[in-house]
Hints:
By secondary structure, the protein is mainly α. It has helices at 2-14, 17-24, 28-52, 54-64, 79-96, 100-118, 135-142, 158-163, 187-215. The longest helix is centred in the C-terminal third of the chain and has 29 residues, at 187-215. 30% of the residues are buried. The mean pLDDT is 91. Residues 47, 51, 60, 64, 141 line the site of one zinc ion.
Amino acid sequence: MLLIYAGIVAGRLMIPDFVRAAVGAQPYWIQVLEVLVIADIGFYLIHRAFHTFPVLWKFHAVHHSIEELDWLAANRVHPVDQILTKAGSLIPCFALGFSEAALATYALIYQWHAILLHSNIKLKIGPLRWLLASPDFHHWHHSDHKEAYNKNYAGQLSLLDVLFKTAHMPDHQPTKYGCSDNVPETYGKQLLYPFQQLLRRRRRKVSKSNILSTGS
Ligand SMILES: [Zn+2]
Ligand SMILES: [Zn+2]
């Protein structure tokens, strides 16, 4: 709900009404395809930021701590991760004035695709794998193999990783999943984990600067 309001406000502030009207007047399927592309560019960028900035990584580590990948993994996401990812991918689409039907269709495709990507199935899609994200593509993103670190960020269009040179899709399967963070196993502790880590980081910084100032 908050996202819808943020999108409407952002749209009113930044996008002229005639542009929003023209976008919303396009045929339904054209709008769905455009939303898929725009939302996935947003998803790619925010996902990459989660892997790049240590403060954000602690929230995303909850999703990457899974060591046995299956369809349920799609839902093991910290709420902060979920909110920022949805904001990054959907606010531009709301702001541009896409129709509710196109946005709802995108939401359904996204949910179905997220479950498929995490599923423990073999699905060969041939050369299409360089355009569309497949289970193999996302499994490599979750793998704990050095050569696959910080690769395969896209949610739906693997083409984005090809264009940004972050694609990694060898012919064999990963053998190890997870990450180096010691994320707790229970839901409540996982919710607290990023905040505790950030607090620890802050305390370490404060004590380091105290040592430096007393030493000088
Ligand atoms: Zn990730
Ligand atoms: Zn995932």
